[in-house]
Design a protein that fits this description.
single chain, mainly beta, four-stranded antiparallel beta sheet, globular
């Protein structure tokens, strides 16, 4: 996992994580756009690189402090107060 967070009170900054995952011969690129200036939330998105299409997205209720693939199709997300599981297969929200 590559993680980069940039903060500066004088300049708007974006921190992000990028992960490429392959599942059933399909490559997915997952971006976690970290805290944007003036917000306390993260916007998560999953992209299919080969189709050049966004597969899923979700606006988190609070900032994600850690995330990790816990299986080839399940992403684990941790915030200050909760732990979530997010499947790349179904169209539901976080569990």
């Amino acid at each position: 996992m590559r993680k980069m967070k940039m903060t500066n009170s004088n300049v708007k900054a974006i921190g992000f994580n990028v992960e490429v995952v392959q599942y059933n011969n399909i490559k997915f690129q997952v971006w976690d756009l970290a805290q944007l200036s003036g917000t306390t939330q993260d916007h998560l998105q999953i992209f299919n690189i080969e189709m050049k299409a966004k597969m899923k997205s979700h606006q988190m209720p609070e900032q994600v402090v850690f995330w990790k693939w816990i299986s080839p199709k399940m992403l684990g997300l941790v915030t200050q107060t909760s732990v979530y599981h997010w499947s790349i297969e179904d169209h539901s929200s976080l569990i």
